[in-house]
Amino acid sequence: MSVLPTAYHGTAARYLPFVLKKGIRPRGEDESHWEYASRPDLVYMTTAYPFYFGMHTAEEDEKTVVFEVDLDHLAVARLLPDEDFIAQAISRAKNVPLAQIHNMVRDQLENWQDFWQKSIEHLGNVCFKGTIPPQAITRYCLFEAWKRPHLAMRMLDPCISIDNYQFCGEGYRQIVEWMFGDRDLIPTNNTGMSFPSGQEVDMVLQEQQKFWEEESKNRTGIEVHAVI
After folding, report:
1. C-alpha distance across the termini of the chain, in Å
2. Which fold has domain 1-228?
């Protein structure tokens, strides 16, 4: 029985054969695609945004693959918080610009190693220093985004911040659970959020719920495989 949480890593499907044989490796000398460059020696995982990261990496008309990782199979001493979590927390507490401290936090992330569980709790992200072995991968999900445009858009528009995760994190996590077949319904857009009452608002929310209930019955473009 797992004690530590499950996390996910999303990437392009072209890496699937390598990962199943050799594990999930850090990007190394490969170029980082983000505004703030990621650490080349870390594998980044998330409970909320793996399909977003995977679709960002995949080429046009290439499948996305998301790997489910059992953190119990990883050395806890090599788990680190996501630098975005630490940098955003410091920026808020010290009232300093994020750009001023982000790279410093990233390069000295080991100083905050004890906060890796807080990083999952408050941002949904966590890192691992080194290669994640194949034995830690329990399942993977292949996604053909072009076949499910509405679903893809739901996962392509996260604002990855502490504040946004507080309100929308549950909905993002539930989408991942549905993708892996662990829940029956895709959450509506309003999951985890409150709206003022009113007839027009209620009608919109009812239409959203009906739409996503219908989408939930459709598994086109989604394949989930257990790793044996």
Report:
1. 17
2. ADP-ribosylation fold (3.20.170)
